[in-house]
Specification:
The protein is an alpha/beta fold. The termini are close together. Strand 4 and strand 5 form a beta hairpin. It has 8 helices and 8 strands, in the order βααααβββββαβααβα.
């Protein structure tokens, strides 16, 4: 029997913003961000209804793009405000206000996708402060599922230490295992906790709608445990990991993925008795 524990970071509780009431700028920002996160999750969950009135629902800026997608506006061609508000209970006015103020991604009518956040990449290296080593590996080239591995600088071959399987956040549509904030975070965690870490790089929406990220994460988790049965070939896992202490964790969308992976691992016979 093998132990799997769940660790995830809680996200902020959504707050509702009353447009008729003057509130501090910080409070308004927090409210809109929470609502905007809900909006992104609703899109990623597949509320893709064709609509002819999308452009009428969001005012264009002074300069139109060649693809008829508005500047400074989160806007999906196959989506309606009415369907969104009916599913998550927000008014059209509130949704428009949130969309116009937070432009994180743009989807063009020809299918091109442009992200404005979460695209920076940090290369793997040996961290000069923590002495943690990192490298990128390919789990499944057919679906482009990869991961970044971390190993403490004082790790000794044959001396087994716990494993953390980490899933990054980003509302299911942005960030990656190589994002600088996550690279710094995992360097710190691995150095302080003295664990091996596998940071999973799952495919993102909207190119790959949910539940693709869950299936990619499950594929990665099965790849990790294949080393327990002797099939895996990654030396950092084969030579250092204590499979009696495997933890899954994440933040934001990654916390949701970690929760689902822990539940599935406990009930799936493929994992060979993980609990």
């Amino acid at each position: 029997m093998h132990l799997m524990q769940l660790m995830f970071l809680p996200t902020a509780r959504p707050r509702y913003y009353n447009h008729n009431q003057k509130q501090p700028k910080q409070h308004r920002l927090g409210s809109c961000l929470s609502i905007h996160h809900t909006f992104l999750c609703a899109i990623n969950l597949g509320l893709h209804e064709f609509a002819q009135d999308t452009e009428q629902n969001c005012k264009p800026s002074s300069s139109q793009t060649p693809h008829h997608v508005h500047q400074h506006c989160f806007c999906l061609p196959r989506f309606t405000y009415s369907s969104l508000s009916s599913h998550i209970g927000f008014s059209k006015r509130l949704i428009r206000h949130t969309i116009r103020h937070f432009s994180f991604i743009r989807v063009y009518t020809n299918g091109t996708i442009q992200r404005f956040i979460g695209t920076s990449v940090a290369p793997p290296f040996t961290d000069p402060v923590t002495r943690v080593r990192s490298k990128d590996i390919v789990i499944d080239p057919t679906v482009n599922v990869t991961a970044r591995l971390y190993l403490p600088g004082n790790a000794i071959p044959g001396k087994r230490i716990p494993l953390l399987v980490y899933f990054h956040g980003g509302a299911f549509f942005t960030e990656s295992a190589a994002s600088p904030p996550y690279h710094r975070h995992l360097n710190s965690v691995v150095g302080r906790a003295n664990v091996v870490a596998v940071s999973v790089n799952y495919r993102l929406a909207p190119e790959n709608p949910l539940p693709v990220c869950y299936e990619d994460s499950w594929l990665a988790l099965k790849w990790v445990f294949s080393h327990l049965k002797g099939y895996g070939k990654e030396p950092w896992i084969k030579n250092y990991v204590d499979f009696r202490h495997v933890h899954v964790g994440g933040d934001s969308a990654g916390a949701n993925i970690a929760h689902n992976m822990a539940i599935r691992a406990g009930s799936d016979h493929e994992m060979g008795g993980v609990y």
